[in-house]
Amino acid sequence: MKIRFSPDFIKLLKKIKQTDKVLISQVNKQLKLFQLYPQHPSLRTHKLSGKMKNRWSISLSRSLRMVYILMNSDEAYFIAIGTHDKVYR
């Protein structure tokens, strides 16, 4: 799976990198796993509904998510990272 990032996603990643080394490590681990096996059970990948119906989510932890748009069968565009409440509004 090819991965691209929105400018907002990159900005948030930079903030996380400066403040939380453990979380950035987890983000990198999950992104690598996603590239190899997008439907791996530990990612808890799921399609969103409602106003976010064309988007998908990966769980980083109980409360943290990464949201992406599936551009085609082999490309994902990550647009948001953060707490459940922040990324789903």
Indicate the proportion of strand residues.
25-35%
SSE succession: EHHEEEEH
* Backbone CA Rg: 12 Å
**What is the overall silhouette?**
globular
- The CATH architecture comes to 2-Layer Sandwich
Characterize the main sheet.
5 strands, mixed
CATH superfamily, please? RelE-like
Structural class: alpha+beta
In total, how many beta strands? 5
Tally of alpha and pi helices: 3
CATH top-level class: Alpha Beta
Query: Helical proportion?
Result: 25-40%
Would you identify the regions where 5 or more consecutive residues have pLDDT less than 50? none
Spatial separation of the terminal alpha carbons: 27 Å
How many domain modules? Answer: 1
What spatial order of strands do you see in the largest sheet?
A: 1-5-4-3-2
CATH topology tier name: YaeB-like fold
Mean pLDDT across all residues, rounded? Answer: 92
Protein name: Type II toxin-antitoxin system mRNA interferase toxin, RelE/StbE family
Organism: Candidatus Roizmanbacteria bacterium CG_4_9_14_3_um_filter_33_18
Keywords: Toxin-antitoxin system
Write the layout of secondary structure elements.
Layout lengths: L1 E4 L1 H13 L1 H16 L9 E2 L8 E4 L4 E9 L2 E9 H4 L2
Parallel strand pairs: 1-5
Antiparallel strand pairs: 2-3, 3-4, 4-5
Protein name: Type II toxin-antitoxin system mRNA interferase toxin, RelE/StbE family
InterPro entries: RelE/ParE_toxin (IPR007712), RelE/ParE_toxin_dom_sf (IPR035093)
Keywords: Toxin-antitoxin system
Describe the structure.
The chain has helices at 7-19, 21-36, 84-87; strands spanning 2-5, 46-47, 56-59, 64-72, 75-83. It is α+β, with helices and mostly antiparallel strands and 89 residues long. The protein has one domain (2-87): YaeB-like fold (2-Layer Sandwich). The chain has a five-stranded mixed beta sheet with strand order 1-5-4-3-2. The model has no long low-confidence stretch (mean pLDDT 92).
